[in-house]
Amino acid sequence: MDFTFTEEQRAAAEAAGAVFSDVAPDRTPSPALTPGAVAEDIDRQLWRELARTDLLGLTLSPDHGGAGLDPIALCLVLRESAKALARVPLLETCAVAMAIERYGERGLAAELLPRAGRGELVLTVGANGRSGHDPAELAVSARPYGEADGEADMKTGGPSGGSGWVLDGVQSAVPWAQVADWIAVPAHTAEGRSVLALVPRTRDGVALADQVSTSGERLAEVRLDAVRVEARELIETAGCWDWLRSLLTTGTCALALGLGERVLAMTAEYTGKREQFGFPVATFQAVAVQAADRYIDLRAMEATLWQAAWRISTDAGGPLPAAGDVAVAKIWASDGVRRVVQTAQHLHGGFGADTDYPLHRYHAWAKQIELSLGPAAAHEEALGDLLAAHPLG
């Protein structure tokens, strides 16, 4: 396996490292001391800096003002963002933008994508369904806009005439929905097809209820009650939602890797300075062995991440569909990041629970990442289904 990055990918990672190096993880109140969300908005200062350095348009084509790089480059940037606990919807905005460019109507892409690359639009996606356990597309129904809808519009003063779709349902735990301009909503049709609707947050029939993540970030339950979307705002292309979900899951694995690497570095620094019996605790065999085990976890997380990102980026074939590599990456990311932060807390002793020290913030974020888009057990089940459908050898 050769995971050597291209010059452009390395340049993107270096630019991201420079931007995120100025971000302090404790810019906001501690989630352990805050009963609700730690902040009402994203980190707008950082968002503007990401736009200024062209990192928001990194994966967009030059036709839309971007650099034309691939999901691997996005994962490299996300890896750096997690080290600083960057409070921006970088994954959601870039992933939705890539799906629009790849599958969406050209006019809508030309309207939205340049603005997203300049940081003028925030995009997010509802990927958790009603409860987080069932497929997200089953939580919302999409039906063609018909005559009965037209009659209702004449009475209510809503849009009338033309073609379009009507959405009904709920998506839970949608990141930063309150400040997003557009929300990507997976849905299903009466024929059982999966589609992806692009819904402006302010569209009639969209209602938001506040939710809070384990890490203290603002989420929302998005309710759609007879929400009308234009035909061009709904992507019917087969495979669109599956591809976007795979990209979101792989990006989440990149966040887990970056966070885990930062936590292990914090642990190495602390145990190298903390002394017991006149020696740094890092020199004790029990400490060194635990740290070494976590290093192995990180290397496994890294290898499986790049395998999944490569499959998505190249559409390369393999004994299993790309979803198999994504499932393996998420299994390692979920279990690995949990083990890393638990070991870090153990090796820090009581200091790790000090709310003036940032380790507890990383622990909260790690738990959120572990469970996002399905814990390890859910992806083990998905991998088993794929192996049953595609026997190996």
Tell me what you see in this structure:
The protein is α+β, with helices and mostly antiparallel strands. Helices cover 48% and strands 15% of the residues. It is built from eleven helices and ten strands. It has helices at 7-20, 44-52, 71-83, 90-103, 106-117, 147-156, 240-273, 285-314, 322-348, 359-371, 376-389, and strands at 123-125, 140-144, 164-175, 182-188, 194-200, 206-212, 218-230, 234-235, 275-276, 279-280. The strands form three sheets. Strands 1-4-5-8 form a four-stranded mixed sheet, with helices on one face. Strand 6 (206-212) and strand 7 form a beta hairpin. The longest helix is centred in the middle third of the chain and has 34 residues, at 240-273. The protein is globular, with a radius of gyration of 22 Å. The two termini are 20 Å apart. 47% of the residues are buried. The model is unreliable at 151-161 (pLDDT under 50). Belongs to the acyl-CoA dehydrogenase family. GO terms for molecular function: oxidoreductase activity. InterPro entries: Acyl-CoA_Oxase/DH_mid-dom_sf, AcylCo_DH-like_C, AcylCo_DH/oxidase_C, AcylCoA_DH/ox_N, AcylCoA_DH/ox_N_sf, AcylCoA_DH/oxidase_NM_dom_sf. Residues 252-379 form the Acyl-CoA dehydrogenase/oxidase C-terminal domain. It comes from Streptomyces sindenensis.
